[in-house]
């Protein structure tokens, strides 16, 4: 496994060059600050993240950091993904942002260019921080004008989660590396009953439709990020394939998936038999009541799995730059990587801990996420941020609700996305 991972790391260097993205979801409640006031001389840092599922591991990381730095207290604040970027923008504009926070690839260039992030290059050089422990592509991704602005935290790929109990009850063979789109459709039909759906297909770019577009030989945006390509035949064909699961009653309809989240309710609640999403969900599904495992994504015209990674950054307006830098170094170091790996939370970006993550949940075939590096595709992103993607998802949501035909949705999605790209 480790030997194979090293052979794939060169692939990671290539596939992450164009971008990376966040590990969104699920929505969570902000963590209240501890009631005990800080001791005299103790500096308090705020740390914003968007995943409640990752909070327990990060609390362990914070405890380990505070044990070594008793003069620094860190208060984590979980901001739900749907609100994260708007709250962050408002906080920065108001001069009251978080000292340290999560950053994703599609948004990084915007925040770095606007001066909202601390330039870490002088600090890295001063303290001799070794950036070679991270995939070079992630270092490049979180660099601006040749300077590093974020220390890589993790990377992730997409695979097919499935409910083994529902497969066993229906007498359907488990998914494997040979599955095609036809096998996925056949299994979904066999697994659909009056009480359950064979698969959940929400309008989720990273977990769902990006992957199928690239598997079909399509593209979402032009390589130079200048144009949205949703109206290209191969791209629209993949969207039609996904929508067919809803049309045929093999997936919950859009209204059901809007009222009950597929990722956090329908799938782990045993109402949906299959769901495509990322490696960050492994620790969450480990604790679900159904017996859940994971397999490679079914193959279309070619194999493809979206890959991205996160970084931790420092707000340029922090009043505690040195303390924030100490915390950032710890977050990007081996002890934090070990905690993330041993808890099965995410695949650490720090070299040497990927195998530890795979072994953390032995009941799941987590190796498929590492194997996906061989055919991984970078999260489609542009330097102007994510508004184009939001506009595309809005149009697709209308199509999923049956308001417009798929062909028209592909055309309108391209128009809406390109209009966002053309904004000054």
Taking the alpha carbons of the first and last residues, their distance comes to 48 Å
Poorly predicted segments = 1-35
Helix content: 40-55%
Quick one: overall form? globular
Mean pLDDT figure = 90
Q: How many E strands? A: 12
Radius of gyration: 21 Å
The amount of beta strand, in percent, is 5-15%
Contiguous helical run count: 19
Q: Describe the sheet with the most strands.
A: 7 strands, mixed
Describe it for me?
There is one protein chain. This protein has 424 residues and is of the alpha/beta class. 44% of the residues lie in helices and 14% in strands. The chain has helices spanning 2-15, 55-68, 81-93, 105-113, 121-127, 136-141, 164-170, 181-191, 205-215, 233-247, 254-259, 262-266, 282-286, 321-331, 334-342, 354-360, 367-371, 387-400, 406-421; strands spanning 43-49, 72-78, 100-104, 143-144, 147-148, 151-156, 158-163, 274-278, 292-295, 305-314, 347-348, 376-378. Strands 1, 2, 3, 6, 10, 11 and 12 form a 7-stranded mixed beta sheet that branches. The protein has a 3-stranded antiparallel beta sheet with strand order 8-7-9. It has a two-stranded antiparallel ribbon with strand order 4-5. Helix 9 (205-215) packs across helix 10, helix 15 runs parallel beside helix 16 (354-360) and helix 18 (387-400) packs antiparallel against helix 19 (406-421). It starts with a helix and ends with a helix.
